[in-house]
Every structure is written in C-alpha cells, then in structure tokens.
Amino acid sequence: MHKRYRWAVIGTGTIARKFLSDLSRIPEAEVYAVCSRSLSRAREFGEDYGATAFYDDVLAMAEDQNVDIVYVATPHTEHFGNAITCMENGKAVLVEKPMAVNGGQARKMMECARRNNVFLMEAMWSRLFPAFRTLVKWVAMGRMGQIRNISADFGFLNTHGPEERLLNPVLGGGATLDVGPYVIWAAASLVGLPAKVQAMGRLGETGVDEHTIINLQHSMGVTSQLMCGIDGKTPQQLIITGTEGWIWVPDFWHADTLIYQPRGESDEEVLSFPYEGLGYQFQINEVMDCVSKGFTESPRVPLSMSVSIMEVMDEVRRQIGVRYAMD
Ligand SMILES: NC(=O)c1ccc[n+]([C@@H]2O[C@H](COP(=O)([O-])OP(=O)(O)OC[C@H]3O[C@@H](n4cnc5c(N)ncnc54)[C@H](OP(=O)(O)O)[C@@H]3O)[C@@H](O)[C@H]2O)c1
C-alpha cells in the first residue's frame, strides 16, 4: 500500500466539485489545497472537503512542498499553463480532458513531464472503469472476432449562455473539444489511432461547433462513426461490431454494463460492473498507483495517445472551420 497523497485542485467549478466528492472518500487521498482566481472562493469551496491550504495563485500553490498531486479542473484554455507551472515545480498532474486546446500544446506538456520526470495524465476517466477495461481485453483477445466497426455518440443539451465555456471560443468552446475526447478515446482505445479523419459539423452563432460527426478509418479497414454534440441529448452509447458478434455499451463514458450478442442464435450475455460514487475513483487510484510505482505516465492513458487524439481533433476542427486564438 502506498502513502497518503496530498492533492490540490485548481478551479472550483462543476467538475472540481464532483471529483472531490469521490476523492474525499478515498483513504489514501487527502484533499489538501484549493486554488481559485479568488482566495475567498478557494476557502469557501475547499472547506467543504476538508482542505487546509488555499491559494489564488497557481505558482504559489505549485511551490507548496506539501502538494503531491495537482488536479487541473479549469476551462480547456487554462490546462496548458496550469499543468506546465505545476510540472516545472515537480508536481504530478492530472489534467482534465481535453488535455489542451491543440496538439502543439499537448506535445509540449508531454515533453515538460518527461523533462521534469514527473507524472502527467489526461483525466480520461472513462477508459479506467472496470467495464471498459474488460471491453479492451475482450477486443484484444478476439472475443468478438475481427472488429469491423465502432459507433459512439455523446450529445447533451447545453443550457449555458454564449459567454460560458461551452460556447465561448475564448475558453475553447465547442462540441469537439468538450465531448469529442470521449468518443475518439473510446474508438482509439479499442482499435488504435486512425489513419484517416473525415468530419462535418454545425457551427453556431459564436463560431464553435455545436455538433460534429467524425468518421475515422483505422488499420485493416476498421471504421468508426462518432458523434459529439452540445445541442441535443443523444443515447450516449458505444457499439462494437465484430465478425463473431457485437457489444452494446450503454452510457459508455461511465459504463457499468456490457451487453454481448454473439453471432447466430445464442442469447445475449449481460455483464454488470457496479461501482460506488460517481466513478472518479478509478482514475484517482490509477494516478496514485502510477505515482507510487515511479511511473511518469499511465500505461492505460498514455501521453502519446492524448497528444495524437488532440491532433485528430485539430484535423476535425480544420475540416469544420473552428479555430482558437492559440492555434
Ligand atoms: N471528466 C468529466 O466528467 C468532466 C466533466 C465536465 C467538465 N470536464 C472538464 O473539466 C474542465 C472544467 O469544466 P467545468 O464544467 O468544471 O467548468 P466550470 O464549471 O466553468 O469550472 C471551471 C473553473 O475553472 C476556474 N477558472 C479558471 N480560469 C477560468 C476562466 N478564465 N474562466 C472561467 N473559469 C475559470 C473557475 O474557478 P475559480 O473561479 O474558482 O477560479 C471555474 O469555476 C473542462 O476542461 C472540461 O472539459 C470534465
């Protein structure tokens, strides 16, 4: 068993709150510090979770010798600067998805982690659920035969205004960066990175995509049809079709069930993987396990994959015409 890790979080928004509700239930993890743009907000937010150190400056927090691991929970456009400051000061970092705004930033973050010999992982929590890990094993061992096609969708209805991060181009708004990582990570984790990318999207009044369709071609002619959207809720499911059957994964981004329909007349097989809380414990434990082993990245959420997926999203955005100031 490893030591008790002291975590710090940057950002006091929606995901920080959900993440800390799971983190605060893990005995090996301590919610130690909160960093906000406002010191009073850091204190008010952090005290709910037992934090004892509060900052309104990322550098000062990164220099705190008591901090072991930093969780970056700010808008996409802040990920690069926040993570670099923490890594340059020797901190392990878990950075929210998407890892950055573009592939160039993500690559510099990977290089910074390696140069400083510190741990860095994109918070692709979906990859770490027991159900999804089982699915990855099944595909690798050929349980569904040869995989032919993957389809995945992640659409929800945004109710926030144009100045909020989901629609605001200054904060990296748009469906591709917000929910694109889930569908692309799902496909790439199962059948590898694509050689070919085709995208079509609907851009809204703020100039960012409100939904986008992404078709990928992987090796051996395997295809993926992916959809990400912030303008309407979709079933949020993943379907993998192979020569020996197909698998349906409802709510694939926080999966607790795999439904396998073998080829022919056999009955479907339903496997359940129940979990407690919201499900962030799997990525929290992955980070602490990797750090305790001296790893600088997770074998399941490797940095090269995060960088390549950012590059796929660069290409998607190039095709649909979405650009940000930092591109
Ligand atoms: N893994 C998941 O399930 C999941 C779910 C939702 C979102 N996310 C990711 O988490 C990140 C944050 O999303 P969120 O929904 O939590 O966003 P949010 O509710 O807007 O919170 C972001 C927080 O970042 C801080 N911040 C720092 N600079 C900011 C700026 N320039 N503008 C606005 N806020 C700023 C703010 O805290 P202070 O005011 O205290 O500084 C704010 O509360 C995004 O990258 C998103 O993709 C992940």
Automatic annotation (TrEMBL):
GO terms for molecular function: nucleotide binding; oxidoreductase activity. The keyword Ribonucleoprotein does not apply. InterPro entries: Gfo/Idh/MocA-like_OxRdtase_N, Gfo/Idh/MocA_domain, GFO_IDH_MocA-like_dom, NAD(P)-bd_dom_sf. Gene3D superfamilies: Dihydrodipicolinate Reductase, domain 2, NAD(P)-binding Rossmann-like Domain. Residues 6-122 form the Gfo/Idh/MocA-like oxidoreductase N-terminal domain. Keywords: Oxidoreductase. Residues 132-247 form the GFO/IDH/MocA-like oxidoreductase domain. This is Gfo/Idh/MocA family oxidoreductase. It comes from Gehongia tenuis. The lineage of its organism: Bacteria, Bacillati, Bacillota, Clostridia, Christensenellales.
